[in-house]
């Protein structure tokens, strides 16, 4: 069964896209066929792999008016195990385009159906909002990962995200599971980061991943060179941390899968 993982947090600047890009690459490096889908109108996940001139059709054409199939817009990356469903600025118009459409929350789920078995992991990068794009991601997903910056007011706003998560689980997608919370932009030298880490752990407890992603200039630089951290700076702390995070993610996905099989067998 394919793991479809939404990376979401309505707060901007928390390392969400950096996590989507490098977690996808790390999982691909583990030999899993991985698809990264960019649902953010800023299209930063797309820009990290391609020049926008190379993107002739995007997720907007798939979700907006179904002029394109998902299979037709997916582009291969330099990694033979990693593909990208590109986004672009036109996605910002989707909220208006889908207003009043009864199937609006299900567009991505329907688009994924014909190709989902072609991949082991599908990672969904979402915009910093809880609008129709993020809702589409959650309805289509099996798992949710929430990146939270280790900073003052880090947890502010997560109540809305968790409420949306529970609403999605209550009706359109009961199979959705919280896979974990990952601390990002962590600076172990500061007391604020340590205090924020303690606050986040008090709220989320065992749901938190053990791996913390530290502040790392290489992680910021790599997209400018159209590379992931694993080809740009493979020995950097950022590469090692995302490799560890990927191992945790794969392990948790497998544990949930085994637990579900046991429940079904019972």
Could you describe the 3D structure shown?
The chain has a single domain, classed as P-loop containing nucleotide triphosphate hydrolases (Rossmann fold), CATH 3.40.50.300. The longest helix is centred in the last third of the chain and has 29 residues. The protein starts with a strand and ends with a helix. α8 links the parallel β6 and β7. It has 266 residues and is an alpha/beta fold. The chain is built from twelve helices and eight strands. α1 crosses α12. Strands 3-4-2-5-1-6-7-8 form an eight-stranded mixed sheet, sandwiched between helices. Helix content is 42%, strand content 17%. The model has no long low-confidence stretch (mean pLDDT 93).
Order of helices and strands: EHEHHHEEHHEHEHEHEHHH
* Whole-number count of domains: 1
The average pLDDT is 93
Distance between the termini: 19 Å
Write down the Rg: 17 Å
Q: Which architecture per CATH?
A: 3-Layer(aba) Sandwich
Shape: globular
Annotation, overall tally of beta strands = 8
CATH superfamily: P-loop containing nucleotide triphosphate hydrolases
Determine and state the CATH class: Alpha Beta
Helix content: 40-55%
> What characterizes the major β-sheet?
8 strands, mixed
Structural class of the secondary elements?
Answer: alpha/beta
Low-confidence parts, pLDDT < 50 over ≥5 residues?
none
Largest sheet strand order: 3-4-2-5-1-6-7-8
- How many alpha or pi helices? 12
Beta-strand portion reads 15-25%
CATH topology: Rossmann fold
């Amino acid at each position: 069964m394919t793991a479809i993982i939404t990376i979401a947090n309505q707060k901007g600047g928390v390392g969400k896209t950096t996590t989507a890009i490098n977690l996808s690459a790390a999982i691909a490096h583990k030999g899993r066929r991985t698809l990264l889908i960019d649902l953010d109108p800023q299209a930063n996940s797309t820009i990290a792999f391609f020049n926008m001139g190379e993107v002739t059709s995007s997720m907007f054409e798939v979700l907006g008016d179904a002029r394109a199939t998902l299979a037709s817009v997916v582009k291969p990356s330099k990694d033979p195990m990693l593909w990208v469903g590109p986004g672009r600025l036109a996605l910002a118009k989707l909220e208006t385009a889908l207003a009043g459409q009864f199937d609006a929350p299900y567009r991505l789920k329907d688009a994924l159906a014909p190709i989902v078995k072609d991949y082991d992991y599908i990672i969904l990068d979402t915009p910093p909002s809880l609008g129709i794009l993020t809702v589409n991601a959650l309805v289509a997903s099996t798992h949710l990962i929430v990146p939270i910056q280790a900073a003052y007011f880090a947890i502010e706003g997560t109540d809305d995200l968790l409420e949306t998560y529970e609403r999605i689980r209550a009706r359109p997608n009961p199979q959705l599971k919280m896979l974990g919370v990952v601390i990002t932009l962590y600076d172990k030298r500061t007391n604020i980061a340590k205090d924020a880490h303690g606050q986040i752990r008090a709220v989320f407890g065992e749901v938190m991943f053990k791996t913390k992603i530290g502040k790392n200039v290489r992680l910021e630089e790599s997209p400018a060179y159209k590379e992931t951290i694993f080809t740009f700076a493979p020995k950097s702390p950022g590469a090692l941390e995302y490799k560890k995070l990927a191992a945790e993610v794969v392990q948790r996905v497998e544990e949930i899968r085994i637990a579900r099989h046991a429940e079904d067998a019972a």
